[in-house]
Amino acid sequence: MREAVFARVEQQLPAIVEHLTAEIGENIDQLIDAKLMVISYFEAHPQLICDLFQVIGKKELRFMQNFGFYFGYPDGLPARRRVARVPALVRAARRRVIIGGPSTTSASR
């Protein structure tokens, strides 16, 4: 009798395990809250999250510096040349017209 039960279990076990793992895979979101697990882990290990931010921040800062140099510097050179060609008094007059001009002076009287 015992051997018959073991034989039947060995015969049906692969199908049962396959069905069970498929069911777990379909409902994994209801069984495990991955977001809560990650938050709990980082709360227990605050130095790890600090290291994570420093590593990622270092890469992002390097990217921003390189982007600013390679795109901002060449873009700023023509603007600098245009500004250098215009005398300071003309630039001041243009700023006054753009910023407020006569409307601000008449309102203050």
Verbal overview:
By secondary structure, the protein is an all-alpha fold. It folds into 2 domains: 1-32; 33-97. It is 90% helix and 0% strand. It is built from 6 helices and no strands.
Order of helices and strands: HHHHHH
Our measurement of the CA-to-CA distance between the termini, rounded to an integer number of angstroms, reads: 111 Å
Shape assignment: rod-shaped
Overall mean pLDDT stands at 82
Low-confidence stretches: none
Quaternary class: single chain
Strand content: under 5%
Structural class comes to: mainly alpha
As a whole number of angstroms, the C-alpha radius of gyration is: 35 Å
Topology, number of strands: 0
- Helix count from the secondary structure assignment: 6
Largest sheet: none
Write down the domain tally. Answer: 2
